[in-house]
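Pasting as-is:
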Amino acid sequence: MVKNNISNIMIIFGGTGDLTHRKLMPALYNLKYQKILPENFAVVSVGRRDKTEEQYRKEVLESVKNYSRFDIDEKVWQDLSERIYYKRFDFVYDNGYMELSSFLKELDENYNTKGNRVYYLAVAPEYFGIIVEKLYRHGMVNNETSWQRVVIEKPFGEDLESARKLNKMITDVFTERNTYRIDHYLGKEMLQNIMVIRFANVFFEPVWNRRYIDNVQISSNEIVGIENRGGYYEKAGALRDMVQNHMMQLLTLTAMEPPVNLDTESIRDEKVKVLKSLEIFTPEAVEKNVVRGQYAGYRQEDKVSPTSNTETFVALKVHVENFRWAGVPFYIRTGKRMPEKSTQIVIQFKPLPGILYFKEYKNLLPNLLVIKIQPEEGVKLQFNAKVPGAGDITIQPVDMDFCQNCQISNNSPEAYERLLYDVMRGDSTLFTRWDEVEYSWKFVDAIAEAWKDKTPDFPNYQPGTWGPKEANELLLRDNRMWWNV
């Protein structure tokens, strides 16, 4: 049963935007469908477009039909739609906030939401500080008699300096405890499963270290290009858009030590220790261990400079400098317009000594553990076995393959369902703490600074390929290769 203390009004700034229609509203419908959404709940969307409430609800219905993992149940939809409201005003001006404050008090009376609020900032980053300051000025943040939480989408700043300024602006009003920096990757089923795989299986944790692991490969690849996001992507690039947040989260969950317990802060503490242990690159190390690329045709995309040096691909070799991982390279790769859409972590184990089968059969493949995060969710273990039959022994790699979403297609819970519910419950385990953001930016800023004065030879890879040839050379010089499993 849902407890009353999660009763709340969710206010979505950017209520007419793509994120709201594709992710947030379908997630709220799915929670309602599963009877998880609190009874005492309403949602107020704020946007600048001129719409009636009826128009807005019809548009939300179409979005739910298109993007929900459940079919429309008329009774469920009717109950939810009556709780959806639309307010039109410009985030910059005070009048709208004054009206919003009065309206929220009315809804508190109607839905018995006790003044609890979730403010979701589904807007461009330049509005984060403005909206937070206006909410505070108009008395809509009062943690004494109720709770108010703010949810912020990436990017959290453009570099360490801007992130620090933004963080102070937000936490001065909401406090760190009530600030939820969302990284939707952390809501994905298999990302949450990484800790279970590691710490709930006796045969994995003892070998999860430098004695048995040769290297770790973390890849997140997309078939699509920038999809009408040229204005944003020109400022971000793959380094800030993916490496600073998503890829760092994958790295920390893979490399972290076992937490002392499973509470929020203990897990976050271990993730931060990994980020603190990362080798910060010198300009010489960036030249040697970081590859950037841009796909042919990027400069012709809408809102992209015809001479753009923005990277759409990054590959890098990093080291976690602690006792567990000393000497084990972590190879990270992310790119647009790749041959396939996939996010996965590949653990390559060390070969056995060159005796017995490893002496007789020179081409034996290494053991691999593959954690598949999207679109397929599951775990695959590759090991060597004999081909059935009499005569000479023939050895081939075989797989133990578990796929948790193959039978139910795309009906696996959406990341935003879990994350929105966690915000209502006040559980910040799957959200990014400030020091995680801080150390991620320190790492990324060193790379960006080294790139600043060097002009890359772009474009340097064709759409549908695995990025520039230098990405393969990054591993070949270590006698390794990328695993496209």
